[in-house]
Design goal:
This protein is of the alpha/beta class and 689 residues long. 37% of the residues lie in helices and 18% in strands. The radius of gyration is 31 Å and the shape is globular. Bound molecules: adenosine-5'-diphosphate (ADP) and magnesium ion. Magnesium ion binds next to helix 10.
């Protein structure tokens, strides 16, 4: 014990001292801390509690339940020393309302001496059911009948940890570091309005859990949250700036190709499409590489915008590559582009995992020698061995999780191409500006005309027979129907079986309809044949696994049935529902569920029934799943925020880009300090040290 409390010799402790300068941090523990990315004393200050324990209230034993974490106080009834395989002590404790047991291993002699019948003991721990009723294993404890005993006044912080580092360790180390908090540089000095809570106050507040659990709106916490969000914003920006240093080809032309294209298009672009197309054309004309995020709800017509960008690149004599996240989607893009561009005499190549090798070689050669100007595909597009003669534009569809790192890989294909990322996930603008600080944002905020609102009905599976009746009528009236089968976690085979069963059931129940089945295991040609039959109207009912999730487009389809809707997330449900309501007929989406409905599932179905607005649904999705899940960890270190919370602190986001500008103008050297403080080199923004 002596060693732990001794003052370490040497220079006085500063925020920059190595962690090993703290009392109680020997070489082994220092190494564990290093592995957690905690090198300096100030890094410990920013290692913040993940939660707080409330030890202030003594719980009567009668009210204790297994699984609870509680502080109790009682009289020692007896102490039993067991010398079995593992030496241990069993202590019986009573408080008048009831009894419980403590189980302790390795007790030092001096401690053991205190454990005597009749003494009062305070302890805190998690309760479990033992042989003799409730027990705590290895609680934290203190004798409560001594003069210096004091029950905790504050909440007790609980730190994220690693093997071999206990909560007691953290608390001791951080207690030593906290007095240094006021010495930390204040990077935001002069940038925020004056009554700015100090960094030291904020850190003390968070580490000590004063009063109640730190209130989210407490200015000291907000001050730290703001700084953390700023650091992430700067990190993404600096990664983008590093990419942006390179020059891209200026893709400029008279726009004749686009006008020619529009002449053969059966509809005119919406105003929203026109607006984002001109934003994109503006970017493409510059020699700074475009990095633009295009947001547009399901069915808003992003593909047309992609076509406009592609034609701009082609007219300027460059190639364009268009990537989708799945094979089915990539094939659909290929089909759409092939159909749109054929009248212009423009060929479309396609690279996906299942290309035959001869075909693949041919496409690769044509791309490399510049004979092929447009290529669609999956990630296969950017694998090794794919080279472009003059790649000017890369478009990524339905993939907002496309991180800085992947973008860099992609842009290594020759000179720096322009980049357009398209997504149906509507991230609030303020949030997008922070997490996509390196992307400009365009939003399609208008659906093409003629869309009809979709009526959404939530229905237990027990009403299936009734539903099939209704389908018979619809088919009789010449309408088409999607029937989507349950997602079965991690089992494609079970999912397939469920789809096959529904297919058999519907085929038998609807003898006058042609029913098709499409799923992930079908060969490309078989799948294409089924999709083509449904697209042309020759097939009335399409039973599908969730492979049709995005992109499919059959305006005559007016009913979408989703089995086991309770298993799907909001984003998926919204995407699926967006397949109907595209024609003149009134459309319906039936969400079938198997009771009982768990709370979150019930809430998801309720949201689906009450809203069709992608923004409302996405926001609810983020609330229900948490921002980390919603945004995906791959894309952004923001999933690992320590103080800020993207939902709770949304109001702070709006000011971040401006704050970043002012900081860069006033004190560019502060950026490095901020990044180090909050990101410490642990997060994947690519360029960040
Ligand atoms: P998403 O944004 O979900 O990718 P799509 O690009 O697939 O949407 O477009 C959905 C449907 O709307 C397609 O059938 C497309 O041809 C059609 N569409 C796109 N723009 C318009 C428009 N301006 N007027 C009418 N229909 C349009
Ligand atoms: Mg699309």
């Amino acid at each position: 014990m002596g060693g732990r409390n001794a003052v370490k010799a040497g220079a006085p402790l500063t925020p920059d001292s190595p962690v090993s300068a703290l009392r109680g941090v020997g070489p082994a523990l220092a190494e564990r801390l290093e592995r957690m990315g905690l090198h300096r004393v100030q890094d410990l200050l920013f290692h913040l509690p993940s939660r707080y324990q409330d030890r202030r209230h003594i719980h009567p034993m009668a009210g204790l339940r297994p699984g609870m974490e509680a502080a109790v106080e009682g009289e020692i009834l007896d102490v039993e020393h067991l010398r079995g395989r593992r030496e241990q002590w069993l202590v019986r404790l009573a408080d008048g309302s009831g009894q419980m047991q403590l189980r302790l291993f390795h007790l030092h002699g001096a401690m053991r001496g205190q454990w005597q019948r009749g003494r009062r003991l305070w302890c805190f721990g998690e309760l479990r059911t033992g042989f003799h009723g409730l027990e705590m294993v290895h609680p934290e404890w203190a004798m409560a009948d001594t003069a210096d005993f004091q029950a905790p006044q504050h909440l007790t912080p609980f730190y994220p940890s690693t093997e071999g580092i206990t909560q007691l360790h953290w608390r001791r180390w951080i207690a030593q570091a906290l007095p240094l908090a006021d010495q930390l540089p204040d990077y935001l000095r002069g940038l925020l309005p004056p009554p700015l809570p100090s960094m030291g106050d904020g850190l003390r507040f968070l580490h000590q859990g004063e009063g109640d659990a730190p209130a989210p709106a407490h200015p000291a916490r907000q001050r730290l949250a703001l700084e953390e969000l700023l650091a992430h914003h700067l990190a993404v920006r600096s990664a983008g700036a590093a990419e942006g240093g390179a020059a891209a080809p200026s893709l400029q032309g008279p726009g004749a190709l686009w006008r020619q294209f529009l002449q053969q298009l059966p509809f005119a672009p919406t105003r929203a499409q026109e607006r984002v197309i001109s934003e994109i054309r503006g970017d493409l004309g510059r020699s700074r590489p475009m990095r633009r995020l295009l947001q547009g709800d399901v069915g808003s017509g992003k593909t047309l915008v992609a076509a406009a960008a592609t034609l701009t690149a082609l007219e300027a004599g460059y190639q364009a590559a268009f990537m989708a996240p799945t094979e089915i989607l990539a094939e659909q893009l290929r089909d759409r582009f092939a159909q749109w561009f054929a009248p212009l005499g423009i060929g479309v190549g396609h690279l996906a995992g299942r290309n035959r090798s001869g075909e693949r070689r041919g496409i690769l050669r044509d791309l490399e020698e510049g004979r092929l100007a447009v290529v669609t595909g999956t990630q296969a597009l950017f694998q090794e061995g794919v080279a472009f003669a003059r790649l000017g534009l890369v478009i990524i569809d339905e993939q907002h999780r496309f991180g800085v790192e992947q973008r860099r890989q992609l842009q290594e294909k020759g000179s720096m191409p322009h980049l357009l990322v398209m997504t149906a996930t509507p991230i609030p603008r303020t949030l997008a500006m922070t997490i996509h600080a390196d992307l400009d944002l365009s939003v399609i905020d208008e659906l093409p005309p003629g869309r009809t609102p979709v009526e959404t009905v939530v229905m237990p599976d027990s009403r299936r027979a009734e539903l099939v009746e209704r389908m018979r009528d619809l088919v009789g009236a010449g309408r088409q129907i999607y029937w989507v089968c349950p997602l079965i976690e991690e089992s494609e085979i079970l999912q397939l079986r469920a789809a096959e069963e529904s297919f058999a059931e519907l085929s038998a129940a609807l003898p006058n309809a042609r029913v098709g089945l499409v799923h992930g295991r079908l060969k490309g040609a078989e799948k294409a044949a089924v999709m083509a039959a449904f697209q042309s109207g020759a097939m009335q009912v399409l039973v599908a696994t969730t492979v049709i999730e995005v992109g499919v487009d059959v305006p005559n389809a007016s009913l979408m049935v989703i089995e086991h809707a309770e298993r799907l997330g909001l984003a998926q449900l919204h995407q699926l529902r967006g397949r109907v309501g595209r024609g003149a007929a009134k459309s319906t989406c039936i969400l079938l569920y198997h009771p009982p409905l768990a709370g979150k599932a019930r809430e998801r179905l309720r949201v689906m029934r009450s809203s069709q607005d992608g923004f409302v649904i996405a926001r609810k999705d983020m609330e229900l799943r948490g921002p980390g899940e919603f945004l995906g960890t791959r894309q952004t270190g923001l999933a690992q925020l320590r103080v800020a919370d993207l939902l709770r602190d949304e109001a702070l986001l709006a000011g971040i880009p401006d704050l970043a500008e002012r900081l860069l103008a006033q004190d560019p050297a502060a950026v490095e300090g901020l990044l180090h403080r909050w990101l410490g080199g642990r997060l994947g923004y690519g360029q960040v040290a």
